[in-house]
Amino acid sequence: MTEMSEVCAALGQYCASTAMVFAMHQIQVACIVRHGLGSQMFRDYCAELVERQMLLASATSEVGVGGDTRSSICAVEVADGIFTLNKDATTVSYGANADDLLVTCRRSVDAARSDQVVVLARRGQYRLDQTTNWDTLGMRGTCSPGYRLSSSGPAAQILPGSFADASSHTMVPYSHILWSSLWLGIATDAVTRAARFVRAEARSKPGTTPPTALRLAEVSNDLHTMRAMVRDMAREFTDAQSPNEDAEALLGMGFALKMNNLKIASSTLLVKIVHQALLLCGILGYKNDSPFSLCRHLRDAYSAPLMIGNDRIFAKNASMLLVHKDD
After folding, report:
1. Which of 159, 179, 210 is a domain's end point?
2. How many Å apart are CA 156 and CA 154, to the nearest integer?
3. Nearest CA-CA partner of 40 in 162, 157, 190
4. Using the 8-state DSSP alphabet, how is residue 57 labeled?
């Protein structure tokens, strides 16, 4: 996880959309590797995934559930070893370019909304009919419109176990760590541009300290805080996978709160850091054709608090804190 986190941070400095696609692909792969290798079909699929370098996307959102990925209306039906699944997804990031999809759904037509499984839908086994457009302020490169998905394939492509376990043990921590890492990359590049601007200002007036230097020190402090937070959580999650650690304890309610707080704090800090950098660079940071331009950073940064809305996460934290006792 620590190495993957560093890759996302590095990519985030150059293209946030590319970093997000990489992160989302890795999240889906992790779900299969950590929860599906008990199945020969999924072991064979992982080998093919690596050999052919396929791109894996997901369809976890759904019309009618209000953005709650832990609830599904659609259900998978199995007959004679074949699954059938139809889903009206609000977003499927880079779905038109993906090779295969991981789709969440109810375990059966009689199952509760929260009793979910994950189904692998392979190219040629599904059809995507686009229902919405992706014309957004930022993160345009993820190409995330809505689709109606219809799919059918071998029942062996239903991931063993429940989505509840895959979500809490893998999807949520991987999402929050990798997303936070790419947001760290955006923040790092924003501060780098601001620092270049301040240094150029200082060189133009030798022997004086420009007034913007103080603000640069402030934003550098925020960036250091964000970097330490992201790296610490990536390291803690990596350590949790060690055979010598009590992984279940780390993946309990206390760890879930830490992961949720990481997402909230990193997405909030990103917006603050980019805004501070923009104030430092002034109008040159606001211009698209400037070497100090922060327009892309600003557009992409404002998507961070909205990806699984921070208010929704605060509400989940509030419920957990009513019963959770500090260790």
Report:
1. 159
2. 5
3. 157
4. E
Sign of CA dihedral 84, 88, 90, 94: positive
- Residue 130 domain-assigned? yes
Report the distance separating Cα 122 and Cα 124, nearest Å: 6
* Exposed / middle / buried, residue 165 (Cβ in 10 Å: 0-12, 13-18, 19+): middle
Q: How many domains does the chain have?
A: 2
Instruction: Please report, in angstroms and rounded to a whole number, the separation of the first and last CA atoms in the chain.
Output: 24
The answer on 299 and 168 residing in a single domain is yes
Q: Is the pTM of this model over 0.90?
A: yes
> Which amino acid makes up residue 124?
G
Phi, psi of 192, rounded to the nearest 5 degrees? -60, -45
Residues 6+ apart with CB under 8 A from 58: 24, 27, 28, 92, 93, 101, 102, 103, 104
Whether residue 214 is contained in a domain is answered as yes
Tokens of residue 218, six digits: 């402030």
H/E run at residue 49:
helix 40-52
Q: Which of 159, 192, 217 is the last residue of a domain?
A: 159
253-281 vs 212-240: helix crossing angle, rounded to 10: 160
Q: What is the DSSP string of 241-261?
A: TSTTS-HHHHTSHHHHHHHHH
Do 279 and 204 reside in the same domain of the chain? yes
Q: Render pLDDT for 119-176 as a digit per residue (tens, 0 to 9).
A: 999 999 999 999 999 999 999 999 999 999 999 999 999 999 999 999 999 999 999 9
CATH number of the domain that residue 135 is part of: 2.40.110.10
Same domain, 271 and 190: yes
SS3 call for 172: helix
Q: Are residues 238 and 91 in the same domain?
A: no
Check which CATH number belongs to the domain holding 264 and give it. 1.20.140.10
Range of the domain at 273: 164-321
Host H or E run for residue 214 = helix 212-240
Instruction: Convert the pLDDT of each residue in 285-306 to its tens digit.
Output: 999 999 999 999 999 999 999 9
For residue 191 the two structure tokens come to 């501060």
